[in-house]
Amino acid sequence: MTRSIAPLLGLIGLAGLSGCAATAMRGGEGTDNPNLDRPAMSVTLDRDDITYLVADYLKSLEASPFWQDTIKNAPQPPIVAIWPIQNATTQHLDDQMLTLLSSIETSLINTNRVRVVARSRQEELANEIGVQHGAAFDPSTAQRFGRQLGAQYFFTGKITSVDERLNNVRRVQYTLFLQVLDVETGLIRFQNEVTRSKAVKG
Amino acid sequence: MRAAPPLTAVPDLRPPLPRIPHAARRAAQLALVACVALLASGCATYTDRLATASAAASAGNYNAAVSDMNSVLGVSKSDELPNSWTGDKPLAALERGSLQQALSAYADSSRDLSATEPELELLDMKTDPVGTLGAYIYSDSVKTYRTPPTERLALNPINLLNYLAQGDLNGAAVEARRFQVMREYLDTLNITATGPATLGTYLAGFVFERLGEGDRALRYYDETLAGGPVQSLDAPIARLARSNPYRGTHLPERLTQIKGSIGKATTPPELLVVLSVGRVPHKIPQRIPLGVAVGLAGTALSGNVDWLKYGAAKVVVYPALVDTPSTLGPATVTVDDHQVPVDQLTDLGASIRQEYDEAKPKIIAAAITRMAARAGMAEGVRAGGNRQSSVLGDVLAILFESTMVALDRPDTRSWTMLPDRVLVARLPTAPGSHTVDVAFGNGVNRRVSVDVPDGGFAAVVVTEPR
After folding, report:
1. Which of A118, B36, B141, B202 is 20 to 30 A from A47 in CA distance terms?
2. Which residues pair with A200 in a beta bridge?
């Protein structure tokens, strides 16, 4: 009997030990684990998705007549502001939105073709004119806001999702709409959409 | 200290141990399984484990209740989440989320509920073969907790309130959309959880109305009205109907009944007061005679229960649903010293009761099946023991079955801190500071000061799970 119990007790002990063991690892470029960032962990947006969305957007923007004709030919780099991108998805994306905005901001600054208003200044002004947190983009407010910031163009947009679940699969299809608005006229000078889907299966 | 090993082999002169027959070994192994089950699952039911937190919440001591839930979660602080989400931890996080909301710690409540939701979803999606096998011989509470539809559908509206209370319309909209996804998923399973659906549609309508999506707001309000008229919706639906075409099923009739001045078509600055009152019914272990149980289970009893005829136990233990007493009286809401009408929006307790009543035959059938499984295993123990001596077989069998009956703890788990009822008051108001007083009788009062922005809203969320 002792012999037959021993393996059972061993298994129980092993299960207990393995349940407690957590491992930390380093990953990404320049490490021994360069593909750590590749697998999807959930249906929310990760850095890989954000990098793809921003790259696709900027590629389209740089190829657009607006950029080639208006921005590149401007006597001096125009001042632009980035209005927070509206999250119209089923996911809480506050942190991802910050990364997305910062990524767009960095890319725009590095083109040396536009001058970007600091977001801290924008937030101050938004508080001053009483734009409630989470308010949808409103062209008339944006125009007033843009003038006060001295901006000629607004980069803004919205991210939406179609979220479905059937049996043990949940799929979220994201679409990022980004547009450039002329503060003076309210006209849309450029618009682009990029899509990305994520799914989780039980 | 150990003695040094001998340099040469010494013959073992001890008498040989008696050889234990295979059947007796098997009987002893089964007894060991019972012990392992005891170690793995503990003796207390969920109701027992929550007794202290429940008593603290009933006394209005929500801080103490949160501390108790921290222990259940295996964390030391209220802002910590567990490292693993096994067993009852997803449920415990829901309980703590409700208690944090009662403390007006909306960001903490939101963190708990938002962190739990994906875990619950994954649990729902994946199968649980180990838990299922364990539950068959022991108790349903061995399985990792999976929320029933009413609890699952209530999660997003309850979390939505956290975002509204913080003035975060975008966050509230995310919860409204998540609610809709879950509702559509439940629809594919032909499940309608009316209680949380009414709450969710009302709040989703409010959110999308404030976001300027009038047609979408009207769709949600139309669905809210499926549960009957809600006075606080009269002005919003009349206002929205002026500039939005959607009419749906219930709006046309309600629009003809609305009397009085509606005012401007634009959405005014507004104050929303949401009161989450009491706690839904909870489960306790209940013993009933076997014959009664078989009658209650009826056609739900499809498993092999032939072994029952050998069993010594003649009672079945199952999780019975009982009301959670509340010390609160009728609620009154006063804004700047003026009393405002309050609607009872939804009765989540009734929804839980209905869901339980529908599942009751299956719950009792599961308890009977477990009992039959135990009796079958006891017979195995008896047969093993009988090869040594018939008395030993009977003793081992009775011992085994008695132990298993004593260990059998029915699954009494549920989201016990979920509010029993949700009430709303809603009124257009001038922008600026306002004082909202809520009285529940028995000396339970809350005073909240809010600022309503020009063209915006303020939400006062008062949760009293007692």
Report:
1. A118
2. A170
Which position has the higher pLDDT, A11 or B340?
A: B340
As given in the structure block, the two tokens for residue B454 are 């020009």
Classify residue B395 as exposed, middle or buried by CB count within 10 Å of its CB (0-12, 13-18, 19+).
middle
What's the residue count for chain B?
Answer: 466
Q: What is the pLDDT of residue A190?
A: 96
Q: A22 and B181: CB-CB below 8 Å?
A: no
Which residue blocks in B126-168 are alpha helix, DSSP H? 129-137, 149-165
pLDDT tens digits along A120-176:
777 777 777 666 554 555 667 777 778 888 899 989 889 999 999 888 889 999 999
- ipTM exceeds 0.90, yes or no: no
The residues near A44 (Cβ < 8 Å, ≥ 6 apart) are A91, A93, A96, A198
Query: Contact at 8 Å (CB) between B426 and B461?
Result: no
Phi-psi region of B402 (alpha: psi -120 to 50; beta: other; left: phi over 0): alpha
Judge contact between A97 and A82, C-beta under 8 A: no
For residue B42, pLDDT beyond 60:
no
DSSP for A38-70 reads: SS--SSS--HHHHHHHHHHHHHHHHHSHIIIII
Chain B contact present for A41, CB below 8 A: no
Which residues in chain B are closer than 8 Å to A19, comparing Cβ atoms?
84
3 state DSSP class of B101: helix
Between B383 and B164, residue with greater pLDDT: B164
- Per DSSP, A130 falls in state T
- Between strands B445-452 and B432-439, the pairing is antiparallel
Q: How many CB pairs under 8 A join A and B?
A: 80
Residue type, B67: S
Beta carbons of A57 and A103 less than 8 angstroms apart: no
Phi, psi of B450 (to 5 degrees): -135, 160
DSSP H or E segment with residue B387? none
